[in-house]
Specification:
Blueprint: H1 10-13, H2 22-41, H3 52-76, H4 80-100, H5 109-123, H6 125-150, H7 156-191, H8 201-218, E1 222-230, H9 232-239, H10 241-258, E2 264-269, E3 272-278, H11 282-302, E4 308-315, H12 323-339
Antiparallel strand pairs: 1-3, 1-4, 2-3
Helix pairs in contact: 2-3, 2-4, 2-5, 3-4, 4-5, 4-6, 5-6, 5-7, 6-7, 9-10, 10-11
Length: 345
């Protein structure tokens, strides 16, 4: 693996979960807190633990927090810290509602379960496990505190209700685990080229757009590289498509072995490949490409194949981080390299 560039910032390495329906999640959060607030405000019995003024202050704070959460998400995107914080705020708010519920059979216990299931399904198995464990612990603690405030232990049927809730959450865990595996496999198939195993064009464009938007904020340099196999058509014509497929796979393996985990390589179409080196300059990238070019050329020569590779390079520029403009830049550089018989430009 190459040693190009300096240490890689965490923002390139951290796994950022995908939010499936953020607008729906925001609506459900506001809907639940609104009906819970109405339930406590119009209850014929005053709330436990807190006064109505304090309850309403917490509700307003919850609204404000998620307005800020939504603003941050819209401007900077999601990250694991933001998602975890939102999930725990939901769980804490649901537990507070239960502590304030003045009835011996508190319906607000279901709010904890909904918050746990909702965040888990929205954000995947990792967050669901945290929410599930947290909701079970917080729910039991909240029920004990609720009983202490009422001065009596819960009735018999509430124990049965709690058992069913725990069972429902555990059952949901196994279902979400299965859905998560199916989702990951579906994503893997849809984003990877079936022949070479590297990213396909669609996946590359999505990841490149993300890196460019990140570059706008962090000014971390990116190097974009087009690679085109020279005389590839001659290989197909003389040796057949099976040998052509072997050439594509071997080049992918060589290039991938020279890149870091934070770099991107994709098959852009036919015998064209595209790469992005993060936190690198043109000077950093050139010796890496020369090694790839040399290894590929040596392998082709030993195999008796009239094939080589040309590279075109370009960098992201401040204020000009449009993916189409960057790709046009590297495409022009590749054209110049092809004119000079495989030079790296």
């Amino acid at each position: 693996m190459s040693e190009v560039g300096n240490s890689i910032p965490a923002s390139f390495v951290e796994i950022v979960p995908e939010i499936y329906m953020p607008r729906l999640q925001l609506f459900v959060r506001y809907f639940l807190v609104t009906i819970t607030g109405a339930y406590l405000n119009y209850s014929p019995i005053p709330p436990l633990l807190l006064t109505l003024t304090q309850v309403n202050l917490i509700i307003v704070s919850y609204y404000v927090f998620h307005i800020f959460w939504w603003w941050y998400y819209q401007k900077y995107g999601a990250n694991i810290t933001l998602i975890r914080l939102g999930a725990w705020v939901d769980t804490a708010a649901a537990a507070t509602a239960m502590w304030c519920d003045p009835f011996i059979m508190p319906p607000t216990i279901l709010v904890i379960m909904i918050a746990s299931l909702g965040n888990g399904i929205q954000h995947g198995l990792r967050i669901f496990i945290e929410c599930m464990i947290g909701a079970l612990i917080v729910g039991i603690v909240a029920l004990v505190i609720h009983s202490m405030l009422l001065g009596s232990w819960p009735p018999y049927n509430l124990y049965f209700l709690m058992f069913l809730i725990v069972f429902a959450v555990l059952y949901a865990y196994f279902l979400i685990q299965r859905l998560e595996l199916i989702k990951l496999e579906t994503i893997r198939i849809s984003e990877h080229d079936s022949l070479t195993g590297i990213l396909n064009r669609r996946a590359f464009l999505r990841k490149a757009e993300y890196l460019l938007s990140l570059n706008d904020r962090t000014r971390i340099p990116l190097v974009f590289i087009y690679a085109d196999l020279d005389n590839f058509k001659a290989v197909n014509d003389q040796f057949g498509h099976d040998m052509g497929d072997k050439v594509l796979r071997y080049f992918s393996e060589i290039a991938k072995s020279r890149l870091r985990k934070t770099d991107i390589i994709a098959r852009y179409g036919g015998d064209e490949f595209i790469m992005v080196l993060t936190n690198s300059s043109l000077a950093d990238a050139k010796p890496i490409l020369q090694r790839i070019q040399s290894e590929f050329k040596d392998w082709a020569k030993k195999s008796g194949l009239p094939v080589g590779v040309s590279f075109g390079m370009g960098t992201s520029r401040e204020g000009e981080n449009n993916i189409d403009d960057v790709l046009r830049q590297v495409d022009t550089a590749l054209y110049d390299a092809k004119r000079k018989n495989g030079y790296i430009r």
